[in-house]
């Protein structure tokens, strides 16, 4: 089901990360598992007993600075015993690295050969992650990453998959790759989808709203994209070798029709059919059957759309610019049930040629790769809330390469 079945296992944790009370599997057991397994239905949490909402009910002082008390836990072989569950792990390592400024903790929580896909392309190895984190903390010394949601699935054997939605806050008082300090305050979305085992993250897709960041800093987004493209000297962005190949048209045939199943019967089927029907089949009328009438969507560059009509207009504007756009769902996991509703993480990718008019300027004829992460809150069989962040600045950079 997931594209991440091609990932390698992380390097073995150090002895200090293997407490006697929570031993890691022996070397023979690890060596037999060259690739981690795909997620299946049984790996999806059936309720919200382990969730961000449950985690923060005791107040900030009860979870940020120490191991929280009284929370539901699950087996976490090889993880530092201070972490109660995977939500606790994600929230507290983020706080320790970014806000407590223990940036070197990345060495303990990321594998040495981890792969990280951001809105520009592939970043390889934890040393690059350390350098980038130092850079961002220097540019925004008062940076805060406020957790807004953590969707998770998996277990200690197949790996824990987490989709961490955060609101980034900070003041640009230091130099950054975009230039001199502006003194401006920023607030933007970020989504990070990680896979972790034995206290180490070894694969991550992270999308920062870089275009929105530039707008808030008062920096021209288009000119910055041109400058970055020139610096790349025409080098193409690397294709994501873990993403599925987007396919819309079989030769000269027409896009296949996919029946939209009920959420209760087949949630993954609902997700895949919804993406295919709207994006590949171009059935924008189906949006009325996929989204609730009062849906709210929040997206890149501060976009907020209310109701199916506004969402339809946004999707039409993207396909108008890229008329041959082919969309693929690369990864899906969720938590919840029919009574309480579901929260879903969807990682997707698309390929299209810039042949139409829109906010990205005159058509360039360039083929671009889009990738993003969406989170859906589903209730009563329809999407009631959506958060979507995609590589908008990366798209502009490709157009000007």
UniProtKB/TrEMBL annotation:
Secretion signal: which residues? none
Biological processes per GO annotation: polyketide metabolic process
Q: Where is this region: Disordered?
A: 1-33
Its protein name is Putative ester cyclase
């Amino acid at each position: 089901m997931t594209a991440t079945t091609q990932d390698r296992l992380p390097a073995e944790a150090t002895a200090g990360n293997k407490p006697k009370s929570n031993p890691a599997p022996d070397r023979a057991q690890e060596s037999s598992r060259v690739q981690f397994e795909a997620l299946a239905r049984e790996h999806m949490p059936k309720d919200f007993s382990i969730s961000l909402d449950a985690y923060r009910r005791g107040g900030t002082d009860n979870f940020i600075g120490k191991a929280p008390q009284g929370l539901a836990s699950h087996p976490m072989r090889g993880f530092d015993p201070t972490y109660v569950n995977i939500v606790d792990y994600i929230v507290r390592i983020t706080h320790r690295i970014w806000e407590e400024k223990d940036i070197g903790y990345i060495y303990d929580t990321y594998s040495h050969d981890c792969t990280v896909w951001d809105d520009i392309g592939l970043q390889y190895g934890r040393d690059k992650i350390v350098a980038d984190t130092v850079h961002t903390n220097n540019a925004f010394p008062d940076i805060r990453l406020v957790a807004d949601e953590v969707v998770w699935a998996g277990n200690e054997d197949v790996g824990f998959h987490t989709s961490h939605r955060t609101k980034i806050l900070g003041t640009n008082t230091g130099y950054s790759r975009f230039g001199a300090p502006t003194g401006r305050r920023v607030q933007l979305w970020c989504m990070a989808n990680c896979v972790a085992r034995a206290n180490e993250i070894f694969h991550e897709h992270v999308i920062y709203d870089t275009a929105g960041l530039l707008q808030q800093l008062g920096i021209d987004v288009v000119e910055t994209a041109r400058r970055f493209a020139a610096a790349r000297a025409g080098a193409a962005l690397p294709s994501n070798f873990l993403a599925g190949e987007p396919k819309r048209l079989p030769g000269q045939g027409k896009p296949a029709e996919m029946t939209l199943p009920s959420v209760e019967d087949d949630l993954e089927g609902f997700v895949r059919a919804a993406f295919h029907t709207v994006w590949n089949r171009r059935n924008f009328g189906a949006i009325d059957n996929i989204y609730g009438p009062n849906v709210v969507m929040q997206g890149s560059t501060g976009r907020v759309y209310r109701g199916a009509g506004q969402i339809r207009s946004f999707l039409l504007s993207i396909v108008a610019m890229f008329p041959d756009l082919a969309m693929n769902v690369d990864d899906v996991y969720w938590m919840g049930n029919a009574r309480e509703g579901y929260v879903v993480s969807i990682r997707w990718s698309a390929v299209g040629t810039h042949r139409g008019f829109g906010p990205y300027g005159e058509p360039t004829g360039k083929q671009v790769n889009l990738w993003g992460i969406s989170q859906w809150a589903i209730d009563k069989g329809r999407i009631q809330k959506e958060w979507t962040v995609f590589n908008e600045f990366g798209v502009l950079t490709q157009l000007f390469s």
